[in-house]
Amino acid sequence: MSKQLMKPITVKGYAVAEPTETQKFLLKPIEQQVNSLGENDIFVDIIASSICYGAFHHVGNIPGHEIVGIVRHVGERVEKDGKIAVGMRVGMGWNYSSCLECGSCKHHFENLCDSSKPFMNAPIGGGFQNGVVWDSRFVYPIPEKLKSVDAAPLFCAGAAVFSPLKLYRESPYSKPNEFKVAVLGLGGLGHLALQFASKMGFHVTALSTSANKEEECRLFGANDFHVHTNENSVKQLNSNFDLILNCVSTDIDTDKFVKMLKPFGKLAIIGVPSSGSIKAGAFAMIMKNRSIVGSGGASNDQIREMLNFAAEHNIKPQIELSSLEKVNEAMEKVVKNQARYRIVMVVDKEIVDKENQ
C-alpha cells in the first residue's frame, strides 16, 4: 500500500531536453510532485550529486546515479523495519531495485539480477535534482567520517573498482604477497582504483599514456608507473600482472594488455569502450589460462563494505565542486575529459558548508 504524504513535495531538477553537438544532450529545468510513497520507498533530500561519464551511455529523463542525501519521509514497511530512518544520511548508486528472489539476489549479488532496475526507473529518480524517491533496500548509510561531497562518487566509481578488487584478488599462480594489480587510466575510476588497491596491500602499477601523470599516480598509491604506449615498457610488462583494471572509456589494444597478465590473470573491463565491444585474440588467453572479465558494479554488501573501507583508510575522490544550476557546463567539461577527476554538484550548500567547518 502507498502512504499518502501530509503535504505534496515539489522536486526541482534537470532533465534531458535535446541533443547538442558538443555534449550529446542539453538539460532543462523541470518540476515534479511527490504525493505518496510505496511501502518500501523513502524520500531523500539531496545534499550532493556527482557526474559519472556513464550518464552519457544511459540517458534517461533525469541523469545522475552518485547521490548523497538525508532521509525525510519513509514508507510504511520502512518505518516498521527501522533499518532506514528519517534523518539518516544515505547514498544511492546505479541500482534502484531488483527482484530479491532470483539466484543472483539470493546469493547477494543484487546488481546481477536479470530484473534489476537502474536509477532511471525510480518514481522520482536521478541525482540531478533536489530530491529523489528510492527503494529503501537499495540505499546505504554513510559512515560519519565521509563528507557528503566525497561520498557521492563512491556510489558508482568507488563501487565499480572495489568489486573486482574483492572478487578477483586470488590466483592459483601467485601467492597473496606476490599478487600484482595494474590500473589502466587515471580518471574518475582509475584514481580511486589506485587508492583502493594500494590500501588493500597489493603491489600497484599505474598504466598511462602520459609520463606527466607519474607523480600524481604515485600520490594516489601506485608503486610503479609505466607509459603503455612505449614499446620498451610494454615488453618488460609481459606476464607481469595478476589483475588489470581497465578504467578507460575508449577502445584499447586488448591483446597488448592480455599479454601483460600472468598465467590465470584477469583483465577486468570497467570502463565502457567507445565502440561498445571488445576484440581479443584467443591464442594469448588459451596458452596461459588468461581471461577477460566484466565488472557489473557492486552488490549491496560490497557497497556497504566499500564505504566502511573508504572511511577507515581515508580514501576519497579528487573532486571539483559545482552546482545544479551549472549542470550543462559541468556535463560539457566531463564529456571533453576536462574534469579532475569528479565533478560534484552541491545541492544543499548549508549542509556541505557545515561538514567543511
UniProtKB/TrEMBL annotation:
Top-level lineage group: Eukaryota
Pfam families xref list: ADH_N, ADH_zinc_N
Keywords attached to this entry: Metal-binding, Oxidoreductase, Zinc
Alcohol dehydrogenase-like C-terminal domain boundaries: 188-311
GO molecular function per UniProt: oxidoreductase activity, acting on the CH-OH group of donors, NAD or NADP as acceptor; zinc ion binding
InterPro entries for the chain: ADH-like_C, ADH-like_N, ADH_Zn_CS, CAD-like, GroES-like_sf, NAD(P)-bd_dom_sf
SUPFAM superfamilies: GroES-like, NAD(P)-binding Rossmann-fold domains
Domain Alcohol dehydrogenase-like N-terminal: 39-144
Cofactors named for this entry: Zn(2+)
Family listed: Belongs to the zinc-containing alcohol dehydrogenase family.
Name of the featured protein: Predicted protein
Organism: Naegleria gruberi
Lineage: Eukaryota, Discoba, Heterolobosea, Tetramitia, Eutetramitia
